[in-house]
Amino acid sequence: MSLLLLAVGLTLLGCPQALHWGPQDPNFNETLVSGEWFLAGMASNQPKLLKEDKDAGLLVHHIQVTPRALQLHLHKKVNGACVPITMMANKTKRKFQYRLEDADQNRLFLEKVDPKSYVILCNHREKREEVVVVNLLSRTPEASPDALLLFTNYCRSHGIHPTNIIKVTATDACPRLPQPRTSAQLATDHCPRA
User: Fold this and answer.
1) Which among 9, 21, 171, 172 would be 20 to 30 A from 38, CA to CA?
2) Global pTM?
3) Are 143 and 40 in contact (CB under 8 A)?
């Protein structure tokens, strides 16, 4: 019986979900990650994905948290031009894990978070082989050295070789576009201020 339990335990440790615990505080309020972000780092176990015009080259610039999902506002560089894209990542039964709405088996994990400074997002996609893409998002155009070190250590602990970790600079990103405004925001624009 103990051999069977050991086998089950080792199997669970080998699955991708076993590597993802999310924020240290189990009561972390996901809405704190809402707002503007800058892509500061990218990493993948498939280095070819880190090249421009590849799937990993999605540049997150805004996250909106809803009761059932993360809405990711992105830009994708296509032939040097920035194309806006919105993706939904629906919550799953597991805390801090989401499933992206697309044809692939894409799971997005909200990992290490300091909502005033950085977020680490880890994406697992299963096709013929497991593809892992990790993004470091920063509230400022340049991530702090502590956040970059945490990101590098996180990637290494998930088996990503240091040569497959890149720092993204503000010049690599797409220019900021104005966010769509809600009707409430538009109404206050026309109200006189006291």
Assistant:
1) 21
2) 0.76
3) yes
For 6-49, the pLDDT digits (tens) are 333 333 333 444 456 566 677 788 899 999 999 999 999 988 87
**In the numeric block, which tokens belong to residue 157?**
């602990």
pLDDT of residue 12: 34
Q: Name the helix (H) or strand (E) containing 84.
A: strand 81-91
Bridge-based pairing of strands 130-138 and 118-126 is: antiparallel
DSSP annotation string for 137-173: EESSSS--HHHHHHHHHHHHHTT--GGGEEEPPTTTS
Rg of the Cα atoms in the chain: 18
User: Counting every residue, how long is the chain?
Assistant: 194
Q: Which helix (H) or strand (E) holds 133?
A: strand 130-138
CA distance 12 to 180: 43
Taking the C-alpha atoms of residue 152 and residue 46, their distance in angstroms, rounded to an integer, is: 16
Token match 């050295």: residue?
A: 145
SS3 188: helix
Tell which phi-psi region holds residue 35, choosing left (phi > 0), alpha (psi between -120 and 50) or beta. Answer: left
CA 67 to chain CA centroid, nearest Å: 18
For residues 52 and 58, the answer to whether their CB atoms sit within 8 Å is: no
**In degrees rounded to 5, what are phi and psi of residue 131?**
-115, 130
